[in-house]
Amino acid sequence: MASEAQSEHAQAAAACLKDFFEAPNAFSGSLIAQQRDSGRSNAEPLPEPLLDAIRRSLNGGADLPMLLPFRSSRDDVTTWYACSRDKQGARAVRADLHAFIGPSYADFDSSIVARTHADEIFERHPFYVVRFRATRPSFDKNIVEQWGIYWSLLQRRPLRRTLVHRTFTQLRAALDWALLAKNESEARATVAALREQHGLSAENRAFLDIRIAAAFGRWDEVLGHANFTYLLKLRLPPETFGDIWEALYETWVRPIEQAGDAARLIAAFETNVRPAAGNLLRSLGRSRRPSALKAFVLHELSQARPSADLCAQRLAELGDGAFGPATAAVVEMIQALTPKRDFEAAREDMEFERYEQAYDLLWALEDSVEMLTALLRCAKEIDDPMRAFQTVTRVRSSADAVLSSVQTKRARLFEDVIRLAAAKPPESLEAQLRVQPEGDHAAENVVEHWRELANADALSQIDDVMAQRLVQSMEDEALSNSSTFDALLPIWFDWIVERTKPHSPFIPLYSSLIETMSVRDRYGESELDLIKQAALHLVMAGPTPDQYAQLMQRLLEIFTLVRSPYVMRWALDLADALMIAPTRNEQARNQLIVAILSAGSEYLARLANAQKALLLLLANEASLPFEFDKQAVAKFDEPHDVSAQAKIMLYSLDSQSTQRAIDVLRTLSPGLKVTANSDTECTPRLRQHTRHADYVFFVSSVATHQAFYCIKNSLRDPDALCQVQGTGTTRIVESVISQFNAAR
After folding, report:
1. What is the DSSP string of 347-360?
2. CA–CA distance, 146 with 122 (Å, rounded to integer)
3. What HEC string does 683-718 produce?
């Protein structure tokens, strides 16, 4: 079978290369027998370092890439194509070549490098390509030299399995990590792996599409999903249920909160949200997403006879200031309600499928066969294991005659609720981590429990005892193969770091998160970004000098492991943030800064302009004995259709990174007029800055939805809005440069 597959690969390579080296390509593929008699005597020979890879492909090798040049004439520029047999290989070779060759010598942005006749050829053959071009014609020889070094390393690389199978839970956790790091390309790749390795139904694909769109705040994509109407008829997973409610609330209700008028909030809910929500209004279920809770409060207040107890209960779950300036008005409306207490009121709520309202009314009544039967029905419809467990406990603790009657008359209903109650996670975290049923969905109920718990305020939920349990669990399970722990770790990170401001009692948690991620030896782009985020939380939480020094030492060890041109963007952003943040041990910090600057000076030729400029800025601020050739930092030109006085606005809640980005941009292009804004609401200043800007660069990972819609509605040109993926100074600057290069 192996020789047959090898023969097929060889035939496919020969056919592709034959077409590639025919006219109009000025290069000659003399290695291909079919082309030896082509009569193209004036064709250019291929550079020698490229030949080994081509020979290997012609012999049926499919595990390593090859590099091919295309030029339509001798006077034309050369377009390079790195070819691989699969998408994963293409992604890997792109990352490798970007590091080996570097943005100083070549441009890897496919939106800037124009397509050629060769692209049509590759579309007809089983190859995936990375298209790039030298920034100057004289750099083509550097590309060939670097390819020779790269190819020699590839040949010495040990063999490894082409496919590492991961469980559904592991891949789902990888998706959570990618979304936390705001790495959409990695998130999409993980979804593709889920489809290839495990298969996904149409509903599950829709759930993941909605999860990705919600993670990036693209509410119009959520509400405009092709299967949105169909999904509303399903019993949705709590996460998807919360994502849809968040999209509905952020789109239609959140902008009105600033008016402080509860009546307007309810009117907006009745006019826009209720018709779109449909069956989602039947029950809140186990979801505790703040947007869903607020929507259900407004839904209840819009009823003819609202439940005062239910409204008060949900408002208490939301905490202070849940509705912004309108909170006081909402509280007054709830306090003015008359509580309902009788069985007939509960029966009426059940007739209208308002099971949560009925459940709370029934719970306050005395035990009876009729009451407990109704309580069981409500618990089943609500579909919350916790309430089901409470209901079963109450039924079993009732009088013997009542219990016997319920078991006899409603045996099937009672068994259904018992099965639902069995899904309640164990009380102790240690027991939860031991839940390992067979199959990929090993700990679904435990994971859902933590997802919903993480919607609450971490400062109020995590006391010293719980924090110690979390730290101990991370230490015990860091190197385990527990699929439950794999799934819970990104949820804890999101709760403790992403959603919560730096907090001194959480310093052991921040350290444990960094240590857990580092000992697992997985240093992808998303993992590094999250390590940086946790480290900055620890720094801003006020560590002791010893804690600070230990953190710097751990970061230095991580950087030493991943030291390469590819990670310099991450390293420079980390150094930049540490230079701005308070320091408790300057010597320990400087050791890390020196290591990063030393690597930057070594890789200077392979760094992008934004990285070079930030490197110079850091060296000057640190007063360290590093000297760089300032001419190495190239200026970039504004596009022809934008004047030399182009105006851009940077929006981000990370004002320090934004200010640093402004400093770097002024170094690279003094003609630019750059303003920054970090308003959390739609203010007149934000609208004015947006209207006056030629381009607006929006850092979505540190922004508010109100600001996004304010900017979107204030733009003169819809195409002027540019999204910045990720965080940090270099991400902002590179987005500006890329946008201007694309506009040339």
Report:
1. HHHHHTT-HHHHHH
2. 24
3. CHHHHHHHHHCCEEEEEHHHCCHHHHHHHHHHCCCH
Rg, the chain, Cα only: 30
Q: What is the helix (H) or strand (E) element at residue 549, kind and residue range? A: helix 545-562
Q: How far, in Å, CA of 322 to CA of 330, rounded?
A: 10
Q: 370 pLDDT exceeds 90? A: yes
Residue 349's identity, in one-letter code, is: D
Query: What is the token pair recorded at 331?
Result: 């509280």
The secondary structure of 211-226, three-state, reads HHHHHCCCHHHHHCCC
520-530: per-residue pLDDT in tens?
777 888 899 99
Per-residue CA distances from 418 to 185, 385, 386, 387, 413 (Å) = 43, 9, 11, 11, 9
Enter the pTM of the model.
0.73
- Sign of the CA dihedral running 612, 618, 620, 622: negative
Residue 527: burial class (beta carbons within 10 Å; 0-12, 13-18, 19+): buried
* Identity at 167, one-letter amino acid code: T
Among left, alpha and beta (phi > 0; psi -120 to 50; other), residue 289 is: beta
Cα–Cα distance, 19 to 153 (Å, whole number): 29
The closest of 104, 96, 113, 79 to 147, measured between CA atoms, is 96
The string of pLDDT tens digits covering residues 116-156 is: 999 999 999 989 999 999 998 999 999 999 999 999 998 88
Spatial contact of 372 and 399, defined as CB atoms under 8 Å apart: no
What span, in angstroms and rounded, lies between the C-alpha atoms of 343 and 345? 5
The total of other beta-carbon atoms located within 10 Å of residue 544's CB is 11
Helix, strand, or coil here: 84? strand
Q: Which residues contact 296 (CB under 8 A, 6 or more apart)?
A: 281, 284, 314, 356
